[in-house]
Amino acid sequence: xxxxxxxxxxxxxxxxxxxxxxxxxERILLLEHPHVITLGKSSKPGNLLFPKEYLEKSGIEIxxxxxxxxxxxxxxxxxVGYFIVKVRSVRxxxxxxxRAIKLALLEVYPFEFSEGPHRGVWLKNGKKIASxxxxxxxxxxLHGFALNLTVDLxxxxxxxxxxxxxxxxxxxxxxxxxxxxxxxxxxxxxxAIISVLHQPL
Length: 201
What we know:
This protein is an alpha+beta fold.
């Protein structure tokens, strides 16, 4: 979908969510956002490191949203994926999303992954390259993942992302030198999602 304001995408998710609840088609949205910070249901005030007024004056929107997890940042150079699909198991869905991200990354670089202290995609060097935060209402999911490709990592220093030190965050560009923007990564991510959805659990 390209670069989409957060509120526009949030409203679209809810519109599709209502359609799916009424028997409509499930969808996965791939896009980017302008600078925005979102606060999940488990967010702690101390993890926003600057006053909201300062951040908003600096051109960073802030939204409190229904997804799980703490505070996170979205911005240009980060591929965001929203899953509006029927859910049997939240854990199963998150596992599927993680597998898809790893498969996409492996198409461009031979990464080694590890288990981190929280859900998301972690590299063997202890850095986090993708975050996951979902919500489920009426058996249908909302929200999804954020994969750091060419995003400016300095913006994570405005928060404790997912309650962690900002230095834990990394990107494809920082780890490999590859400058693949979301516009070029969409087909890679799409192939990975389709592949994982067709794999037996």
